[in-house]
User: Fold this.
Amino acid sequence: MTIKNIDSATLNKWLKNGEAVLIDVREPAENQASKIEGSHLLPLAQVSTKSLPKYDGKKLVIHCHSGKRSQSACAKLLAEDAELEIYNLEGGIMAWNSSGNE
Assistant:
């Protein structure tokens, strides 16, 4: 599988419909300062397939501040499990906030 990039509008729709599990790979202080409601904090250094929250068939979406760390997290997870279907939030929480989401 490859990493699929999605935009904020797509993520917002998926979250409202209960279709996605969102993972924040930023550090705890960054998460406390600003977060997307319902996201699970899993700092990049701790990312592994074993540390993922249960996602039971839902889409697995990774986000960070601007999209770079989440891209790395996606690559790390795919290296462990090439069959994983995973999505990266383009532009991270900065894009999420600038598109009017909270």
User: Anything to note?
Assistant: The first helix runs from residue 8 to 16. The chain has a mean pLDDT of 95. The beta strands are 4-6, 20-24, 40-41, 59-63, 86-89. The chain has four helices and five strands.
